[in-house]
Amino acid sequence: MSKDLDIEYVRNKFPVFRNPKTKDLAFFENAGGTYVPDSVINKLNKFMTETKVQPYGDFSSSIEAGDEMDNSINKIADLLNIEKDEFIIGPSTTMNMFLLSRAIKHWLNKGDEIIVTNQDHEANIGAWRKLADEDIIIKEWSLNKDSAELEIEELKSLINEKTKIICVCHTSNIVASINNLKEIVDLAHKHDIKVVGDGVAYMAHDLADLKEIDLDFYGFSLYKTFGPHLALLYGKKELLEETKNLNHEFLSKEIPLTLNPGGPNHEELACLSGLTDYYEDIYNHHFSNQKISLHEKGKAIFKLVYSHEEKLMEKLLSFLKSKNNVKLIGKSTHLRSERMPTVSFTVNNKSSLSIAQEAGKNGIGIRNGDFYAWRCLKGLGIDTNDGVIRISMVHYNSIEEVNKLISFLEINI
Hints:
With 413 residues, this protein is of the alpha/beta class. 39% of the residues lie in helices and 14% in strands. The chain has 2 domains: 7-36 and 294-412, Aspartate Aminotransferase, domain 1, CATH 3.90.1150.10; 44-275, 3-Layer(aba) Sandwich (Aspartate Aminotransferase, domain 2). α8 (210-213) links the parallel β6 and β7.
């Protein structure tokens, strides 16, 4: 069994790398949305062609539709090591966080405080900031302007007896450092403060141990983790039971469906088991031990991913650090224990937009902008209109693609 990620085997699971129209694009905009493996696409097509009826009825296609949806719920719960009634599948992290903020608003009184960061993108903090219109005080945990990091001492200075919620990203989609959620949660719980974690930029690279971290709520986008355009919101069961019903009145006891008005998208929910099938396929290719849980299999896979992503980052960051006109955002290390493989930077006297556009003409997919993290860029003194150049890699990216990118950047920055 190989100790390295079999990148050829991995890429063969994604039809985009076989399609003549797309196979030659070096795609580095994964933080905006990842490619999808065959197993997800096949299950989506199967649902749409065989079971596109109202589920949970008494005829065969309706029964199968409900079974496929339930199978996805059960598989995702196993993958994340949580219970099937501790999460919802909604349309986006932005919407899920908005719904959560509405569902727990009655926990807050006038003058209570919520701490948000300016390192986050708007999906996690936008809904909470809106509560300022309802006499809730919003405090900002600001990043260090020099390092772009969130510092725990700064958080401690913001906490008082009025603090009720802390909202913080596991990883910034710009800075890419891994924030120590366990330390933040432990600090918060000592003061009876709830923590809402944002895993949007984290979960494509690892499986967060939600129970071990002891998070109260945690959200991430499934379309940024090799699935369809959906998002997941986890919450401790005892907390979900205290939320307000946002759904139909007759569903007031159906937790956590109470947080998900209209319910999940049927066909996209059904194909999520294709994502766990993909992880199991990758695990079976690299490992033989079947006497472990799906979550443990996922963690084993991501250890291989961890090493592969480090190699990609080491190559790219070594090049960028050699350029005096490049300003890297965040840590310059390639070590995955400290950061994720999303690299943001600016180039002196060079438009970020022009570089991204030229890259596109050369068969390389990168982006520029603020990536909904405009507060982060503003805090770092970066023009929010032109923004940063962002290169975001995942496990199906190859060293050959990184070499192609470096060759382009050598000429164009």
